[in-house]
Design goal:
Blueprint lengths: L25 H13 L2 H8 L10 H13 L9 H15 L9 H7 L8 H29 L5 H13 L13 H12 L14 H6 L9 E6 L5 H15 L4 E5 L4 H13 L3 H6 L4 H16 L2 E4 L6 H15 L3 E5 L12 H19 L2 E7 L21 H6 L2 E6 L13 E9 L5 E8 L4 E4 L4
Parallel strand pairs: 1-5, 1-6, 2-3, 2-4, 4-5
Antiparallel strand pairs: 6-7, 7-8, 8-9
Helix pairs in contact: 1-3, 1-6, 3-4, 6-7, 7-14, 10-11, 11-13, 14-15
């Protein structure tokens, strides 16, 4: 049995506008609950279709539905069901579980006269429709209060309203049930049809693209993990360049650490092969400037959108992604980095990070795009003789590893041993690849150009 926290606003005319009347269909609720009492099996049928009894606004009718849920497997043929329901309600009321009054037995008997055996689904849809309308009206009232408040924050409040709007229509996994026989034909077709790369987001690295069947897929949650100063941001910028500049794929880069001018400088250096320290000192040579001038139009036309707000929460990110997905066809989101995001309130830091991780995974699925998130690793690699990181080194929460479809761990031997024989090389360790192989891809680290360079062997 479940109950819903009352979301309808209190009538407080002294502090603001009067709340609107709640949309409801009491007649439909009465017929629906009466039908449930007389034909209890419809409770399971409607539940499988996604009906939520919390949408029943009349307290005693809602509790009557709950009683039928509780008793439906215990009813006997010929039993006066309204009497059994009445006894159950009295028991709950005596135990303190049912706060509302218990309707008299004759009221329940009279209710049963409204049963409509063949139309339970139709009446349930009427109740659900009114419940959706009620949530929309309540959300509108909440928007009026937020907009009229002196503490209104356009970033936080608008994003929160947009997130609430996403939840106006409840969905259940049951509505997406499919029989295996309906799915098998497509599986057989995929077995003999090589996948196309039209929906893939190229990484800019040939071997990575080959490993991922053409690049990142829609709906994937990708984690890049590394210790500080390994080049996580540089690698993320390379992914953004490979998608937005090389493939013209709309990309959002959320930087919580670097400012927009610095990111722009680094992207220009990476594209035009300009020494980053020369640009910072303003001493770029004429030859390099000529090369930058040739690359500048291509960079400028790229659908790459950069935000450097230091305060980024899931609701704000969802609002921005929703807007860009609608107006620009957004397909790739990069967040630099997870531990700097504003975490939701939680009992512990681990739980908060877990909620962030789950929220980013749902973001990828809900908008059918790829979300790449940078993540700090703990100090585990530094305490081992073999410095290479492993997936379990992801910092603060095992949920990150669990939620990720792909985990790429970045490692450079020369970060620990300056005289390493592999100076200038970097390992992109694919430690997790849901539904695919793992491997270690070698790339060249060209830190002076603020980029990694492909060293494809295939």
């Amino acid at each position: 049995m479940s109950t819903e926290t009352e979301m309808w606003p209190a009538d407080d005319t002294a502090s603001g506008p009067r709340p609107p009347e709640r949309p409801r269909d009491v007649d439909a609720e009465r017929v629906l609950v009466a039908t449930a009492v007389m034909r209890p099996d419809c409770v399971d049928e409607l539940g499988a279709d996604g009906f939520d009894p919390a949408d029943i606004t009349t307290d005693w009718l809602r509790w009557t539905w709950f009683a039928v849920e509780e008793l439906r497997s215990d009813f006997h043929d010929g039993e006066l069901k309204h009497l059994a329901v009445h006894r159950q309600l009295e028991t709950w009321h005596a135990d303190g579980r049912m706060p509302t009054r218990v309707p008299p037995a004759d009221q329940l008997m009279e209710l049963c006269n409204h049963a409509h055996y063949g139309a339970a689904g139709w009446y349930a849809s009427r109740v659900t429709k009114k419940a959706v309308a009620a949530r929309v009206v309540a959300l509108g009232y909440d928007a009026i209060l937020k907009g009229g408040s002196p503490a209104f924050d356009e970033d936080i409040d608008v994003a929160a309203l947009q997130a609430d709007l996403d939840g106006v229509i409840r969905t259940t996994d049951d509505t997406d049930l499919s029989a295996i026989g309906d799915l098998l034909g497509d599986s057989l077709m995929r077995a003999v049809t090589p996948p196309t790369r039209e929906d893939r987001v190229p990484t800019g690295f040939v071997d990575l693209d080959s490993l991922f069947s053409g690049g990142f897929a829609p709906g994937q949650f990708v984690v890049i993990g590394a210790r500080p100063a390994m080049g996580k941001t540089t690698l993320a910028q390379d992914f953004a360049r490979g998608a937005a500049i090389a493939a013209k794929i709309p990309t959002l880069f959320e930087s919580l650490e670097m400012a927009k001018p610095e990111l722009s400088d680094r992207i220009l250096c990476a594209e035009a092969r300009i020494p980053h320290h020369h640009l910072k000192q303003g001493i770029v040579s004429d030859v390099d400037m000529a090369r930058a001038a040739r690359r500048a139009p291509t960079i400028a036309e790229a659908p790459l959108f950069i935000n450097d707000s230091a305060l980024l929460s899931l609701p704000v990110l969802r609002g921005r992604v929703r807007n860009l997905a609608r107006t620009k066809g957004l397909r790739l989101v990069i967040v630099d980095y997870l531990q700097l995001m504003q975490a939701p309130k939680a009992e512990s830091r681990q739980q908060a990070v877990a909620e962030l991780s789950r929220g980013l995974k749902l973001l990828a699925r809900d908008f059918n795009l790829t979300v790449v998130v940078l993540c700090q690793l703990n100090r585990g690699p530094e305490h081992r003789t073999e410095k290479k990181p492993v997936v379990s080194d992801l910092r603060e929460s095992g949920a990150i590893e669990q939620d990720a479809d792909i985990v790429i761990l970045l490692h450079r031997e020369d970060a620990y041993e300056k005289e390493s024989s592999r100076a200038g090389e970097a390992d992109l360790i694919v430690g997790k690849h849901r539904g695919g192989p793992t491997a270690t891809i070698t790339a060249a680290f060209q830190g002076h150009f603020a980029r990694f360079s492909d060293m494809a062997a295939t």
